[in-house]
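Quick one, tokens below. Sequence please?
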């Protein structure tokens, strides 16, 4: 577990169930609800704030909101100093 505090805002009304976000997420944050044909953001604490899910969604149904104060975010920057 990465343990981030990022948030993911999801609009079920805008979502058309194309599954692109589910296929795009390289960690296990997004699962798929086959019954409702919608993504389920299950393990948000593992989100790497890569914005790929938000980028691939042509319906603008996903907004990733990084927590810039999180310890994980600061560690990510530290390694490039
Ligand atoms: S990419 Fe967007 S429209 Fe497609 S399943 Fe994900 S949220 Fe829904
Ligand atoms: S921002 Fe990246 S890591 Fe986070 S849920 Fe979206 S695709 Fe997965």
């Amino acid at each position: 577990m990465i343990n981030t505090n990022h948030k993911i805002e999801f609009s079920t009304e805008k979502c058309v169930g194309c599954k692109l976000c589910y296929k795009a997420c390289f960690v296990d944050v997004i699962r798929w609800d086959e019954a409702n044909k919608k993504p389920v953001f299950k393990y948000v604490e593992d989100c790497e704030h890569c914005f790929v899910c938000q980028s691939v969604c042509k319906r603008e149904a996903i907004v990733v909101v990084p927590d810039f104060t999180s310890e994980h975010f600061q560690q990510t920057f530290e390694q490039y100093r």
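The CA atoms of residues 14 and 59 lie 6 Å apart. The mean pLDDT is 89.
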